[in-house]
C-alpha cells in the first residue's frame, strides 16, 4: 500500500496525543489488546481467588498458620512486578502463563487478607445460633460465614481486580501485557496517540470491571442495602 | 541456568562501569530515597492536617483507589515523552526527572490514605479527654494523635517505599534509569540468565528495604511497649498500590 503525503493525517505528522484517525485505523489492534488484557486479568484474579479461599480457611485454624500465610504472601507482594515476571521466565517462558501466575500471586495477597477479615467479622452469636440449630462445619461455612463475609470479600475482589488491570501492562515484557504491549511498542517509535489510547482504555477497563463487581455484590447481598 | 545466574552475579566485571550493576543499584537507591523524601514532604503535612481536622476524608481515601487504577507504565511513558522529556538528569540518569515525578506520584496515595486514616481512627475519647484537660490543639496533635497513629502512618511509609522501589524498576521499560535496565537488557539480548540475575537483585533489594522498614517501624512506634501487652493485632487489608 502506498500512502500519499496528503493521506497521512496531520495528527500523525505532529505526533499529537489525541488523534481520532488513530482510534479508527488501529481499531483491530486496540480491540485485540483490550480483549487480551481482559482475559488475562479475569483469569488471574479468579486463579488468585481460588487459591485464596482455602489458604484463608487454613490460616484461621491457628495463629501460627495465619502468620505463615499472611507473612508469606506479604513477601511475594513486596517483589516488584517486573522482577516477579522475570523470575518466572525460566519456568514458564514467554507465555501468558508467566503473567497470569505473577498477577494471581499479587491478587492472592489482597484476597487472603480480605477473606480472613471477612470471616473474622462474623459475630460469634450468629455462629452459636447456627451451631444450636444443628449446622455442621461445612453448612456453617457455606450458609452463614461466607454470605456474611461477602461484602468484605467483594471489597477485596475490587481492589485486586483494579490493581491487576494496571499491573497487567507490565506483562508486555513477555509480550502478554494486553494494552501494555501497545505501550511498549510506543517506547520505540514514540507514538503518542497510541500511548494515550492504550492508557485511556486501561483505566476505562479498570473502572468498568470495578462497576461490574459492585453490581454483582448488590445482587448477591441484597440485605446490605437495607442495613445502611 | 542457576549456575549462569550465579556466575553473572559474582563476576566483578558485571558490577563495574557506567552500565554495571553497581551504577544501576546506586541510581535506583538514589531515586528511591529522593522520591520517598519528596513524597513525605509533600504528602504528610496535608494528610496530617486533614486528619486532625477530620475533613476531606472522601478525597484522602479515594486518592489511593485512583492510584491503584492508573498503570505506572503509562504514567512513566506520558511523562517521558511529554513536556518533562527523557533527558539525563544529574545522578538520576536518563529520564531521571520523569522517573522521579512518577515515583513521587505513586508514593503519595498509600502515604496520604494511611496517614489520614491513622489520625482519624485515633480513639475520639482520648482526643476529647486531652482537650478537656486543657491541651492546646497543637499539644493534642503532638502528644495524643500523632503517637497513637504512628503504627498506621509508618505502615503507609513502608507501603510507599515498596511502591517506589517497584516503580523505579519499571522505569527501565521506558529506557529510564535503575536496576530494571539489567532485566530489559537481558530481554533485548536474549540472555535469560541476565534477566533472572536482574530480577534477583531487584527482588532482594525490595525484600531488604521491606525488612529495614519493618525494623524502623518497630523502633519508631512510641506505644510499642504498651501495645506489646495487648492482644494480637488483627490482619488489616492491603491499602497500598502496586507497581
Question: Which features characterize this protein?
Answer:
heterodimer; A: 228 residues; mainly alpha; 11 helices; 80% helix; B: 243 residues; MetI-like fold
Write the layout of secondary structure elements.
The complex is a heterodimer of chains A (228) and B (243).
Chain A: H1 10-13, H2 20-25, H3 27-59, H4 63-78, H5 81-92, H6 96-120, H7 124-132, H8 137-168, H9 179-189, H10 192-220, H11 223-227
Chain B: H1 2-10, H2 12-15, H3 21-53, H4 57-69, H5 72-81, H6 96-120, H7 124-132, H8 137-170, H9 180-188, H10 192-220, H11 224-228
Helix pairs in contact in B: 1-10, 3-6, 3-8, 4-6, 5-6, 6-8, 7-8, 8-10, 9-10
Explain the overall architecture.
- The complex is a heterodimer of chains A (228) and B (243).
- Chain A has 228 residues and is an all-alpha fold.
- Chain A has helices at 10-13, 20-25, 27-59, 63-78, 81-92, 96-120, 124-132, 137-168, 179-189, 192-220, 223-227.
- The longest helix of chain A has 33 residues, at 27-59.
- The radius of gyration of chain A is 22 Å and the shape is elongated.
- With 243 residues, chain B is mainly α.
- Chain B has one domain (2-228): MetI-like fold, CATH 1.10.3720.10.
- Chain B is elongated.
- Chain B starts with a helix and ends in a 15-residue tail after the last helix.
- Residues 231-238 of chain B have low confidence and may be disordered.
- The chains are: A mainly alpha (228), B mainly alpha (243).
- At the A-B interface, helix 4, helix 5, helix 6, helix 8 and helix 9 of A face helix 4, helix 5, helix 8, helix 9 and helix 10 of B.
In round numbers, the mean pLDDT of chain A is 90
Number of helices of chain A: 11
CATH topology of chain A: MetI-like fold
Q: Please compute the radius of gyration of chain A using only Cα atoms.
A: 22 Å
Q: What is the CATH homologous superfamily assignment of chain B? A: MetI-like
Order of SSEs of chain B, N→C?
HHHHHHHHHHH
Helix proportion of residues of chain B, in percent? over 70%
Amino acid at each position: 500500500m502506498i500512502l500519499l503525503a496528503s493521506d497521512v493525517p496531520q495528527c500523525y505528522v505532529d505526533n499529537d496525543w489525541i488523534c481520532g484517525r488513530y482510534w479508527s485505523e488501529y481499531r483491530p489492534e486496540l480491540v485485540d489488546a483490550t480483549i487480551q488484557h481482559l482475559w488475562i486479568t479475569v483469569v488471574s484474579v479468579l486463579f488468585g481467588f481460588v487459591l485464596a479461599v482455602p489458604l484463608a480457611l487454613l490460616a484461621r485454624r491457628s495463629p501460627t498458620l495465619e502468620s505463615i500465610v499472611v507473612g508469606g504472601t506479604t513477601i511475594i507482594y513486596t517483589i516488584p512486578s517486573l522482577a516477579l515476571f522475570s523470575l518466572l521466565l525460566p519456568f514458564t517462558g514467554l507465555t501468558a502463563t508467566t503473567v497470569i501466575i505473577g498477577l494471581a500471586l499479587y491478587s492472592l495477597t489482597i484476597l487472603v487478607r480480605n477473606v480472613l477479615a471477612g470471616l473474622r467479622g462474623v459475630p460469634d452469636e450468629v455462629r452459636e445460633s447456627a451451631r444450636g440449630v444443628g449446622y455442621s462445619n461445612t453448612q456453617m461455612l457455606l450458609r452463614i460465614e461466607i454470605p456474611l463475609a461477602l461484602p468484605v470479600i467483594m471489597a477485596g475482589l475490587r481492589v485486586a481486580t483494579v490493581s491487576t488491570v494496571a499491573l497487567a501492562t507490565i506483562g508486555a515484557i513477555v509480550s502478554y501485557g494486553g494494552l501494555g504491549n501497545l505501550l511498549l511498542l510506543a517506547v520505540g517509535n514514540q507514538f503518542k496517540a497510541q500511548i494515550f489510547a492504550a492508557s485511556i482504555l486501561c483505566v476505562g477497563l479498570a473502572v468498568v470491571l470495578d462497576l461490574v463487581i459492585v453490581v454483582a455484590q448488590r445482587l448477591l447481598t441484597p440485605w446490605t442495602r437495607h442495613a445502611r | 541456568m542457576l549456575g549462569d545466574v550465579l556466575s553473572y552475579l559474582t563476576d566483578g566485571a558485571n558490577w563495574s562501569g557506567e552500565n554495571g550493576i553497581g551504577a544501576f543499584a546506586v541510581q535506583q537507591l538514589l531515586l528511591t530515597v529522593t522520591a520517598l523524601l519528596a513524597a513525605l514532604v509533600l504528602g504528610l503535612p496535608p494528610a496530617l492536617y486533614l486528619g486532625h481536622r477530620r475533613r476531606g476524608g472522601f478525597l484522602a481515601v479515594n486518592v489511593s483507589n485512583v492510584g491503584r487504577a492508573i498503570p505506572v507504565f503509562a504514567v512513566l511513558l506520558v511523562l517521558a515523552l511529554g513536556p518533562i522529556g527523557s533527558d539525563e538528569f544529574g545522578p538520576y540518569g536518563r529520564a531521571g526527572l520523569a522517573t522521579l515525578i512518577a515515583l513521587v506520584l505513586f508514593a503519595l496515595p498509600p502515604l496520604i490514605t494511611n496517614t489520614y486514616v491513622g489520625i482519624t481512627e485515633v480513639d475520639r475519647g482520648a482526643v476529647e479527654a486531652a482537650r478537656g484537660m486543657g491541651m492546646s490543639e497543637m499539644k493534642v496533635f503532638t502528644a495524643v494523635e500523632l503517637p497513637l497513629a504512628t503504627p498506621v502512618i509508618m505502615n503507609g511509609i513502608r507501603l510507599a517505599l515498596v511502591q517506589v522501589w517497584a516503580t523505579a524498576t519499571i522505569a527501565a521499560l521506558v529506557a529510564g534509569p535503575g536496576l530494571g535496565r539489567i532485566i530489559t537488557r537481558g530481554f533485548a539480548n536474549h540472555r535469560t540468565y541476565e534477566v533472572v540475575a536482574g530480577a534477583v537483585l531487584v527482588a532482594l533489594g525490595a525484600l531488604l528495604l521491606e525488612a529495614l522498614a519493618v525494623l524502623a517501624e518497630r523502633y519508631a512506634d512510641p506505644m510499642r511497649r504498651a501495645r506489646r501487652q495487648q492482644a494480637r493485632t488483627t490482619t488489616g487489608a492491603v491499602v497500598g498500590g502496586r507497581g
